[in-house]
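Lab channel / #folding
Pinned by the channel admin:
"Please post every new chain as: sequence first, then the structure tokens as a reply. Keep commentary short and put observations after the output so the thread stays searchable."

First post following the new format, from NK:
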Amino acid sequence: MASPSPGRRSKKKTRPITVEDLFSSVSAKKAYGSFAPPPSYALTPRSAEACLQTGVDPEDLRIRDLDSFWEPDLDPARQSMRHESYCERRHGLVKMLRRSRNGIMASEEQGRKQKASSSKVRGIWGACVGESVTRAMRRLLFGKDRH
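Reply from TO:
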């Protein structure tokens, strides 16, 4: 049996993460000094759509410790204020994303219900052989013909 080529790296498949997973993960972002490489993760479709709709950078949802706000010649009180402000903004962003994501799920559910009701209408249309589709549609929607 042939072994994999030494030059190829096996890609580790990771599952997509949600907004909630991001909110509970720790960021490697720093305000000063050597910067961490950009994170590589995939969001779930609904979480990605919620981020796009609201304009939120997913990295802004991750936890940052007080030391990540350190800069030379920065007063510790100001560093603490920046950290507190970041935490408050982070909580506000996740609330906004949750609302957006719930709205997306509600619209998907409404779409499923409409699809199910349209299949019932198609069954009724089959019984309306000989009538034009528009007349059958008017009869179903309004209970009588409207010209």
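NK: Residues 19-32+41-117 form one domain.
TO: also worth noting, The helical segments are 19-23, 45-54, 76-126, 133-142.
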